[in-house]
Design goal:
With 241 residues, the protein is an alpha+beta fold. Helices cover 34% and strands 14% of the residues. The protein has eight helices and seven strands, in the order E-E-E-E-H-E-H-H-H-E-H-H-E-H-H. The strands form two sheets. A five-stranded antiparallel sheet has the order 4-3-2-1-5. A two-stranded antiparallel ribbon has the order 6-7. Helix 3 packs across helix 4 and helix 5 packs across helix 6. InterPro entries: LRAT_dom. It holds the Pfam family LRAT. This is LRAT domain-containing protein.
């Protein structure tokens, strides 16, 4: 994967990978966890997470599976991509590479846990849910990041773990912070340089790999503390076969 794109071929991904695709002509990205067997577990709004087995091009009977009132859904890879390209989210990148990435929601400095742990979290949450969807505090990227790292933010009033959401909030923040300096800049190029620099720094400061307000939470403890139910291990295994 290069500096400008994280695009990969299907043959390059493996179970436990954090993948994503772009929607609405690259307006935003949708994230999920590839669990093997051409299946992806991802998180979306409840009203859009209804079963799609009738429209699944592969006729997978469990494509579109989700628990009632849960936004966590199991889809086949084709239904997840919706004719979009496939991208792989990067973990444990260096700070310099992270800030060099122009677009948020593509990588993190945090390290991923083992493949088995990642899949266990994803399948557990498929059965028990991941709370209410919120575009800034609890979205599809937050779900995938939690499955990969087990990290949650302590302050639920602030921005979530999502790099995509941080980018949206980071752009106006960068403009605001750089505005007092614009009078010191000899040209618009100088203003743009300062703004771009502040944008990158603000994104880096909200990355889960460097934040001080994140804690490691076991998925069983997460579900118990939020009052979710139990899951069935045998059913999990059947769904990813």
């Amino acid at each position: 994967m290069g500096l400008l794109t994280n695009r990969v071929e299907r043959s390059e991904i493996k179970a436990g990978d954090h993948i994503y695709t772009y929607r609405a002509v690259f307006a935003y990205s949708h994230h999920g966890i590839f669990v093997g067997g051409s299946k992806v577990v991802h998180f979306t709004r409840v009203e859009t997470s209804s079963s799609n087995e009738d429209s699944c091009p592969n006729n997978y009977p469990d494509c579109g599976f989700s628990q009632p009132n849960s936004g966590v859904i199991l889809s086949c890879l084709d239904c997840f991509l919706k004719d979009g390209s496939l991208y792989a989210f990067e973990y444990a990148v260096s700070p310099s590479l992270f800030m060099a990435k122009v677009r948020g929601g593509t990588c993190t400095t945090a390290s991923s846990d083992s493949e088995e742990t990642v899949i266990h979290r994803a399948m557990y949450l498929l059965q028990n849910g991941f709370g209410n969807y919120n575009v800034f505090q609890n979205n599809c990227e937050d779900f995938a990041l939690y499955c990969k790292t087990g990290l949650l933010t302590v302050d639920r009033l602030g921005v979530g773990r999502s790099g995509q959401a941080s980018s949206v909030l980071g752009a106006p923040l960068a403009a605001l912070l750089s505005s007092p300096l614009k009078f010191l800049m000899p040209s618009p190029v100088g203003v743009a340089t300062v703004t771009a620099g502040m944008y990158c720094v603000s994104r880096y400061a909200t990355d889960i790999g460097v934040r001080s307000d994140v804690v490691k939470v076991a998925v069983e403890d997460l579900a118990f503390n939020l009052g979710w139910g139990d899951f069935n291990t045998q059913q999990d295994q059947q769904l990813i076969k």
